[in-house]
């Protein structure tokens, strides 16, 4: 029975992946930073190993005996200390690679993101040939781009690496995106930027996990793949339907994208000058980009090389959210 190591196993994607691996008959070990995280991964069916991606020795212990590692842990957000983004997303990824080599892990699957391509421009029908943007002014984008560069450069010398990039991961069990938007609306702080009528691709968590499973078991070494739900949606319409499953009615308030972008730039400069990294400014450029710009993705490579096809549709995912709305 194969064994896999999962970092970020207590999170949304990592937890769903643990369940899939267990259903496929795999043993799973999962890195856990706290007692609470250890309990969450244990409930999913994995053996918790206490540690942190910043601790290479602990990672080596966790990776021992694993055939495959999936690196889903990352610092996510549109604001924070630049040193922390660098330490966790770039340095942490390098630590995972080093641990995999030391432990003789055959394959490392890295959970990437379309944000690694973002530097202020719309992404229109992009594929894997689009350049990474380590120079992005957004810390999450730049650090994830650097992390992916490290992973792709590590392919070879006994370690196979594969990158999977989902976009806008959603679905039942979401602990980040849906709760964050819900909180903004209930606090009367939500505004549609530029009207919110642009097209965007999304990736249900089941489809994300399907891509990771194929990357772990089928992808050629060195591969990079986008995975999505296969059909773009209108951002405003989709978010409205998601929030409706929580009994939340979206407001009609709108702010022009240019105004929001200018406000974000000024806010970031003030927060940065004051070194206010512990709390975000009222709005950030990254938030403006993801809320107002088209992001559509071509998944032809994953379909062609992996046989990837979405396993959960928008309608099925929304129905599942509605069924769990009162839990």
Q: What would a concise description of this structure say?
A:
The chain is an alpha/beta fold and 327 residues long.
Q: Which class do the helix and strand fractions yield?
A: alpha/beta
- How are the strands of the largest sheet arranged? 3-2-1-4-5-7-12
Strand and helix order: EHEHEHEHEEHEEHEEEHEEHEHHEHH
The appropriate CATH architecture of the domain at 3-171 and 203-227 is 3-Layer(aba) Sandwich
Radius of gyration: 19 Å
The protein's oligomeric status is single chain
How many helical elements? 12
CA-to-CA gap between the ends?
Answer: 35 Å
- Helix coverage percent: 40-55%
> In total, how many beta strands?
15
Q: Biggest β-sheet, characterized?
A: 7 strands, parallel
Q: Which regions are unreliable across 5 or more consecutive residues at pLDDT < 50? A: none
Q: How much of the polypeptide forms β-strand, as a percent range?
A: 15-25%
* CATH domain fold name of the domain at 3-171 and 203-227: Rossmann fold
CATH class of the domain at 3-171 and 203-227: Alpha Beta
Shape: globular
Average predicted confidence as pLDDT: 96
CATH superfamily of the domain at 3-171 and 203-227: NAD(P)-binding Rossmann-like Domain
Features:
327 residues, Rossmann fold, alpha/beta
């Amino acid at each position: 029975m194969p064994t896999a190591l999962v970092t970020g196993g207590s999170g949304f994607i990592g937890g769903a992946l643990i369940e899939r691996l267990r259903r496929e008959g795999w043993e799973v070990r999962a890195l856990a930073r706290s007692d609470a995280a250890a309990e969450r991964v244990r409930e999913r069916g994995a053996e918790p190993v206490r540690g942190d991606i910043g601790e290479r020795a602990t990672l080596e212990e966790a990776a021992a005996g694993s055939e495959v590692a999936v690196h889903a842990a990352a610092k996510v957000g549109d604001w924070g200390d630049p040193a922390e983004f660098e330490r966790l997303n770039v340095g942490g990824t390098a630590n995972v690679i080093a641990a995999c080599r030391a432990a003789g892990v055959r394959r490392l699957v890295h959970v990437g993101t379309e944000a690694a391509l973002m530097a202020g421009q719309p992404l229109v029908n992009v594929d894997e040939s689009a350049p990474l943007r380590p120079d992005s002014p957004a810390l999450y984008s730049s650090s994830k781009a650097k992390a992916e560069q490290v992973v792709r450069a590590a392919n070879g010398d006994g370690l196979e690496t594969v990158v999977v990039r989902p976009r806008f991961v959603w679905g039942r069990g979401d602990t980040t995106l849906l709760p964050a938007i819900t909180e903004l609306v209930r606090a009367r702080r939500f505004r549609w930027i530029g009207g919110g009528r642009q097209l965007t691709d999304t990736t249900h968590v089941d489809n994300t996990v399907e891509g990771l499973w194929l990357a772990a078991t089928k992808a050629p070494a060195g591969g990079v793949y986008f995975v999505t739900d296969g059909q773009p949606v209108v951002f405003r319409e989709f978010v409205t339907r998601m929030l409706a499953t929580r009994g939340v009615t979206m407001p009609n308030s709108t702010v022009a994208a240019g105004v929001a972008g200018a406000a974000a730039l000024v806010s970031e400069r003030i927060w940065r000058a004051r070194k206010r990294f512990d709390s975000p400014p009222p709005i950030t450029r990254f938030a403006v980009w993801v809320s107002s710009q088209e992001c559509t993705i071509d998944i032809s490579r994953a379909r062609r090389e992996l046989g990837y096809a979405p396993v959960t549709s928008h309608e099925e995912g929304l129905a599942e959210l509605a069924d769990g709305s009162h839990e």
